[in-house]
């Protein structure tokens, strides 16, 4: 890892955890933690600099601290504090542009790591069963955080062309879950009743927040033998879960809603401040999304410790029991399924007779 590492987005729990973790790496001489607001959690021995990456002043921070490695984690879908969607978009897009401009002018920068999302693939009815890093989306995201991520990656590719001497790594994370997850999907899964799209049961993937920290460390340092940590990589735990499986494991009843009415439900939930049930999240909860992690393992040399199911189980434990105990709900579903199977078998036997 570079001797001086600058990390953005440190006021969020995930950014703070990463800052505290990399300070223990012997290759790291100093960590510069940057955010527009002071974090409520500790940052260990890192140098905290209160700076807005949307402003040109970020170039001075890079120069004054002789930064050679930048880990850009301030690309997110949720506002921090009183900030709204407009503030989030400006930080994601304008902030990334300013940061990349500052990196381009700095001769000391040797490595750039960017936290992105698998939402760049979108969610559409004709999507492939599994996305690889080179699979073009069937329908480009039209708004929200997904569109921000697409624009951010476009600017990063431009930077990589202009500065071929800098090792650039883009990590496309699946939905991040864990005990301290604060994403829109985590808010949705914490609702007492889960509104779902009638007739759809999407496949979902998750990545544990501990694995997020580990893969960021690998991407931020010099590559190990027989690996390459420059390029774009999907990051997700093994396996998939359907939304109905998630609901049963949480013990939360689902409320199927016809697709045209889902938007109204989302607006109502946003109005009362329960969750950001955005159009992009509605598409995810309709069509789902699954990505390949072959390049993550074979090229980057990283294997997640948590599967999708294990990640979700850890998240579920942190949220407490739902309205229906998972064991009781699973038993009821199994009994209904058994009765339906028996009834179908009996009907078939009578028809043959």
What is the gyration radius calculated from CA atoms? 22 Å
Number of strands: 13
Q: Helix count? A: 12
Structural class assignment: alpha/beta
Helix content: 40-55%
Spans where pLDDT lies below 50 across 5 or more residues: none
Measured distance between first and last alpha carbons: 74 Å
**How many strands, what sense, and barrel or not for the largest sheet?**
7 strands, parallel
- Average pLDDT across residues? 89
Molecular shape: globular
| Spatial ordering of strands, largest sheet | 3-2-1-4-5-6-11
Order of helices and strands: EHEEHEHEHEEHEEEHEEHEHHHHH
Strand residue percentage: 15-25%
Pick out its properties.
two-stranded parallel ribbon, 7-stranded parallel beta sheet, 13 strands
Could you describe the 3D structure shown?
- With 353 residues, the protein is an alpha/beta fold.
- It is 42% helix and 16% strand.
- It has helices at residues 13-22, 58-64, 85-105, 144-162, 184-189, 209-220, 243-250, 259-271, 279-287, 294-298, 308-319, 326-352, and strands at residues 4-8, 30-35, 47-50, 69-72, 111-117, 167-173, 175-177, 194-197, 203-204, 206-208, 231-235, 241-242, 254-257.
- The strands form 4 sheets. The chain has a 7-stranded parallel beta sheet with strand order 3-2-1-4-5-6-11, with helices on both faces. A two-stranded parallel ribbon has the order 7-10.
């Amino acid at each position: 890892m570079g001797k001086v590492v600058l990390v953005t987005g440190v006021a969020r729990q995930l950014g703070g955890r990463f800052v505290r973790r990399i300070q223990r790496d012997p290759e790291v001489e100093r960590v510069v933690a940057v955010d527009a607001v002071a974090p409520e959690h500790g940052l260990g021995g890192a140098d905290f600099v209160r700076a807005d990456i949307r402003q040109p002043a970020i170039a001075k921070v890079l120069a004054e601290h002789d930064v050679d490695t930048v880990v850009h984690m301030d690309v997110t879908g949720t506002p921090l504090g009183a900030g709204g969607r407009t503030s989030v978009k400006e930080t994601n897009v304008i902030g990334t542009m300013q940061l990349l401009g500052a990196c381009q002018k700095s001769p000391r920068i040797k490595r750039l790591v960017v936290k992105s999302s698998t939402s760049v693939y979108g969610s559409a009815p004709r999507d492939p069963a599994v996305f690889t890093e080179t699979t073009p989306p069937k329908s480009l995201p039209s708004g929200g955080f997904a569109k921000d991520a697409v624009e951010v990656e476009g600017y990063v590719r431009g930077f990589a062309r202009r500065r071929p001497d800098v090792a650039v790594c883009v990590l496309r994370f699946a939905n991040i879950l864990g005990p301290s997850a604060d994403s829109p999907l985590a808010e949705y899964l914490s609702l007492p009743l889960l509104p779902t799209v009638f007739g759809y049961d999407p496949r979902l993937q998750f990545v544990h927040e501990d694995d997020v920290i580990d893969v960021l460390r690998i991407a931020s340092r010099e590559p190990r033998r027989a690996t390459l940590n420059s390029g774009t990589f999907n990051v997700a735990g093994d396996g998939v879960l359907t939304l109905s499986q998630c609901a049963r494991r949480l013990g939360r009843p689902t409320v199927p809603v016809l697709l045209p009415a889902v938007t109204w439900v989302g607006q109502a939930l946003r109005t009362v401040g329960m969750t950001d049930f955005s159009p992009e999240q509605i598409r995810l909860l309709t069509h789902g999304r699954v990505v390949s992690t072959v390049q993550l393992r074979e090229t980057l040399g990283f294997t997640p410790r948590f599967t999708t199911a294990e990640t979700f189980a850890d998240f579920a434990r942190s949220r407490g029991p739902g309205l229906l105990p998972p064991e009781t709900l699973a038993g009821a579903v199994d009994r209904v399924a058994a009765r339906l199977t028996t009834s179908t078998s009996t009907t078939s036997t009578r028809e043959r007779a």
